[in-house]
UniProtKB/TrEMBL annotation:
GO terms for biological process: carbohydrate metabolic process; peptidoglycan turnover. It comes from Penicillium antarcticum. Residues 50-352 form the Glycoside hydrolase family 3 N-terminal domain. The lineage of its organism: Eukaryota, Fungi, Dikarya, Ascomycota, Pezizomycotina. SUPFAM superfamilies: (Trans)glycosidases (SSF51445). Pfam families: Glyco_hydro_3. Residues 1-21 form the signal peptide. This is Glycoside hydrolase family 3 N-terminal domain-containing protein.
Length: 358
């Protein structure tokens, strides 16, 4: 007897394994891919391992206080916990840090030269290539798969915010773009994810204008921002940079009310639209002092997601910070205040990058 599709399909579906998680739990796993957690001291709290098992963690960010003799073992424990989780997605968690070079290094080891020293080398491209290799080597040895570098800020005056610690390659956009793209190619060829920062640029920020500590407004014209500050991103995108980190400064030339990471104009129209970036976007620290007017950290995570940011950096060294961000995104997806279709595109972008990690 030949069964009709109307009879056969329901019968076959009845034989399929039934989901063991609720829709809300499934949603929290998807949201988890978007949130980076942090923890205090050398040993992660047990609750972080619980959240990893539940699939609510997309990765961790490490600071100097987390770096000790057993760091590699700790990272492997977190990765093993995820691999053994029922929510394992087939690729490792992101494990990231700031190994820019010079003074800004969370781990001992290369690159020892600062970005400024590299930009002043007789052959900046060659020096930046070696810089990227050195960063990758240091991170790989520690089982870290993601570097929040290079900085693509184009400083204006000696002693400015990105210059006084040597974080900027140059006050010349071409040099910054050349060095940044060379760094990216070398680092990503070695299997380490790169994130160019801080879009659209903090090069015009004065020495005391630190978005980690206070609100910052950069009044450069749109013409200057495009010709000077965002110009290096063209080369970085052409080099295949995996991620771009947004700035928390406000740039009135395009959006007078929102920091870049909360601004659809900067993220969706300028970075993705005009510059054609197809990769993953990541915020700077959600607890930054620049965001004091924008509610608590969870609310800031929602604002960033609504603007089109893919990954949210909960880096206050408090596991509950990341947990609160996951919770508000789940609730917002359920009530429609966060667009599910666009959010899911971000999930796909994130997983495409995750699959690059060995």
């Amino acid at each position: 007897m030949k069964l009709s599709k109307q009879i056969l399909l329901p019968f076959l579906l009845s034989l399929a394994p039934q989901a063991t998680t609720s829709p809300t739990e499934d949603l929290s796993v998807q949201v988890g891919h978007h949130v980076i957690f942090s923890y205090p001291g050398l040993e992660p709290p047990s609750h972080l391992f619980d959240l990893v098992t539940q699939g609510k963690v997309g990765g961790i960010i490490l600071f100097g206080e987390n770096v000790g003799e057993n760091l590699s073992t700790t990272i492997e424990q977190l990765q093993n916990t995820y691999r053994n989780s029922p929510h394992y997605a087939g690729s490792p968690l992101f494990v990231m840090t700031d190994q820019e070079g010079g003074q800004i290094r969370r781990l001992p080891g290369g690159p020892e030269s600062s970005a400024k020293q590299v930009g002043q080398a007789s052959n900046p491209r060659k020096a930046a290539t070696q810089m990227g290799k050195d960063a990758a080597s240091t991170l790989e040895a520690a089982k870290i798969n993601f570097n929040l570098a290079p900085v693509l800020d184009v400083y204006r005056k000696p002693g400015d915010f990105t210059d006084h610690t040597g974080r900027s390659f140059s006050n010349n956009s071409d040099v910054v773009g050349t060095c940044g793209s060379a760094f990216i190619k070398a680092q990503q060829s070695a299997g380490i994810i790169s994130s160019a920062k801080h879009f659209p640029g903090l090069g015009a920020a004065g020495a005391t204008e630190n978005t980690d500590l206070q609100p910052v407004t950069i009044d450069s014209s749109l013409e200057v921002l495009r010709s000077v500050d965002t110009a290096p991103y063209k080369k970085a995108i052409a080099a295949g940079v995996d991620m771009v980190m947004s700035s928390w400064a406000i740039y009135p030339a395009l959006d007078a009310q929102h920091p870049s990471g909360f601004s659809k104009a900067w993220i969706q129209h300028e970075l993705r639209g005009r510059l054609g970036f197809k990769g993953v976007t990541i915020t700077d620290a959600l607890e930054a002092g620049a965001l004091e007017a924008f509610g608590d950290d969870a609310s800031r995570g929602l604002l960033a997601s609504q603007a089109g940011m893919d990954i949210l950096l909960a880096s206050s060294r408090n596991v509950t910070q990341g947990e609160s961000v996951v919770d508000i995104l789940v609730a917002s997806l359920k009530d429609g205040s966060l667009d599910m279709e666009y959010f899911t595109l971000g999930t796909k972008r994130i997983m495409e990058v995750r699959r690059k990690i060995v």
